[in-house]
Amino acid sequence: MTRTSEHGPRHVAVRRTGGRPVLRRRAPRHVAETRHETHHAARGASTRTLLAATALLALGTGVVLTGTGSTFALWTASTEATGPTLVSGSTGLTINGETDHVLAGLGLGTLAPGQSVLAPLTLRNTGTTPVGVRVAGTAVTADVNGLAGSLAVSVTPVTPGTSCAAQPPGAEHFPLDGFFTPSPLSSLAPGAELAACLEVRLDLASPSSVQGGSAGFVMTFEATQERSS
Asked: Mapping DSSP to helix (H, G, I), strand (E, B) and coil, where does residue 2 land?
């Protein structure tokens, strides 16, 4: 017995059991095969899609790893060396134990032409470096009757064991105003001393107009550091 439906012909077997018919439905084979093929195709397509997605994921992971690897840098380390505190040396000079010495007793009021007044000086290096000592300059601070223009001076080292004395006649003297020594009087080690003699002489040819005059001056001694050899 055969029936037709929208899905194609169906075969129905009729079997009698105890005088009553029993119907059994048989599914068309081509329908089942079609469904099996469709399911297999869908499964294959799904598998290919999954594999493609996996491939893309692997590719993306490779790019990330490559990018991360390119940021690596060489390791570095640092340390510090701390030095000691550095202290600079110094220079210092005193005259008769003072940094601003006043020549008390250097009276010019009793001078006559050709005579001199003397002032013994002790120069001491109070710094920490060797120095050369010289007269850097002399400035007249007061002048009455033009006496300063007739005064000449000299500063000379004193030989140990001798006293300050006037230079012999004919020894070179220089005008008081602007007097300086172009070269050092002596070289002094730290703590060393130099005995020197300051002589102020009234010119033998001084005019009468300077009588009763007076003069004041400031003489600057300079200590200059000497380079070590």
From this structure: strand
